[in-house]
Amino acid sequence: LRHIVDGLGGKAHGVPREDGFDITVASEVMAIFCLATSITDLKERLGRIVVGYTYDDKPVTAHDLQAEGAMAALLKDALKPNLVQTLEGTPAFVHGGPFANIAHGCNSIMATRMAMALGNYCVTEAGFGADLGAEKFLDIKCRLAGLKPDAVVVVATVRALKNHGGVAKADLNEENLEALEAGLPNLLQHVENITNVYNLPCVVAINAFPTDTKAELDLVEAKCRELGVNVALSEVWAKGGEGGLALADEVVALCENGDAAGRSADTFAFSYDDDLTLAEKIEAIAKRVYRADGVVFEPAAQKEIAQLEALGFGGMPVCMAKTQYSFSDDAAKLGAPRGFTITVRQVKVSAGAGFVVALTGSIMTMPGLGKAPAAHKIDVLEDGTITGLF
User: How much is the pTM?
Assistant: First the structure.
């Protein structure tokens, strides 16, 4: 379903064309759902979805098909922020879920604003690191919603840093200070993105695993403090809320006072300006956030950028679709790689969401199954009991 040919069978069955499906969390409807601020805004955004082009390259929208009302009716109740609670009774919203590697990676604006109105502090997640989740939260969601965060928490694990230092996943439980130190530049680049690119105060939360040794935890903390970065050990997995008190104290201090360099919500800056061209915005992200030497635009992407700018979409922010395993567009380049370029093969507009999507490297917006699909574990016993669902 990633790459199909449809519209076959003659004039009554549509126009023959190459097409494909996106995974739900990468769809424009999910992005619209998360960026909408009301039912009215939701309908307007749905109506702006570009579903195709005429023979003279004019966009055809969902509004042209009079489809936005029906779509909004399906999403009416889903638009309400979903209130849940932690095991300790702390309220939380789980609302929307676009992946940060192939979509914009943030929960809904409505949930964030509601949380800000109802609590002293609102903590929101943006997954897949400061090159993806944080970049899109700050450059897309904050830009479109007018938000200015007071502080950023970069979550790190000893296991992930050892992996970036060259340790195979099967060996991550063993202490390896040499590999840990070799992988630390990856964490430090994430931190520098927050402090030097976006000018925000930052604290590193070391998410402790039972297999971490004291020497490993001490090394991460020491290297962070060498750069003047606040760091706190998070033991929430083992101890619940009590295990997060040290981190909470650091976050509150940064929110109230900023950091020692004077960074705060007032110094927050985007990684690129609105008035740049689409290519310049992509290059700014690649050079400033990924530390790439430059961007290679394939001919198809160049043509698409020119078309989108001619249609008036050039002022939109950019949503980069890129592997989450590397700062580059090559999943094998771990750590903090240098001397590479980013290849953009396709550029498409999500007009309702309000951003342009740039597909880099070999990233796919509809991933395949894992090596062992869940279906392999499901069975029915002789008495009718179904096994393997959970």
Answer: 0.91
